[in-house]
């Protein structure tokens, strides 16, 4: 079975990109032929891609200069690349809409899975309306989301499946040691909705006598601005984008996040898989659901509460207790084996459908 996975960005580090890489690994291990296509080269990192993957190279300027021209060209690209695919997996609402449009003119020959990562209600009204209309014309397309909360947003579609993103789990629990300096870690996009600056302020204004160092791993629009603003503060270390986030997680004591909302907190779950307790400021639902279910940390509604939890985790026994709770939760619910079985079941059902 030939499968194509379509995502917006190449050379970008983010939750969607990690999820796509993990899914490609799962499908490849199950002896499926997989190709991956990207609309835009984000150029955050430069890596040599595996031979099994093929990409469309566009830089951001093509999109910024004329969105209409970009989407017209993108439509033709999608039409050409999806023609011989038996199954299409799309990871954003705009690409899904264009593929559904192409499918309509092909009498819905291609089987389409619309794998949505971004909160549906956060998309533009235009793309939400276009997606709903085109989805109503395709009786075989399936929507995949990663939580019951997101599923409720697709009430207009009866073919919605919940499959969480897989997390590469670790084999052993972690025992935290007492330390004079606590290493805090944030991994993710450095943009306004991730609340990186409010996270920095919460750390550097903490009145505790314990020393904290906040390591920030990732790239984005606010990176250079924040690096310049806090360049003389030795509590804040910027490491830029990195593919080797496991190195940072293994050396850290607590994972922290100032994000305003997360649909599905992939990086938090990755941190839990390394036995790290978590403190987050995201009260939108995605993160709080994971943390409350796992016992792996706390969701805070204010800077003061965030700082109180930092003080709480100065105790290495408490870090170990909550870290182990998160570790067990991830292994039980998000391991590659569990998610692989769910994806293969969905793909087998899609493959059994008649054209």
From TrEMBL:
Q: Which GO terms describe its biological process?
A: carbohydrate derivative metabolic process
Query: Looking at the keywords, is Ubl conjugation present?
Result: no
At the top level of its lineage, which domain of life is listed?
Bacteria
Q: What are the GO MF terms of this UniProt record?
A: glycosyltransferase activity
- Keyword check for Transferase: yes
Q: Where is the Glycosyl transferase family domain?
A: 179-317
Task: Provide this UniProt record's keywords sorted from A to Z.
Answer: Transferase
Q: Where are the transmembrane segments?
A: none
In its UniProt entry, what is this protein called? Answer: Glycosyl transferase family 1
| Organism placement in taxonomy | Bacteria, Pseudomonadati, Pseudomonadota, Gammaproteobacteria, Enterobacterales
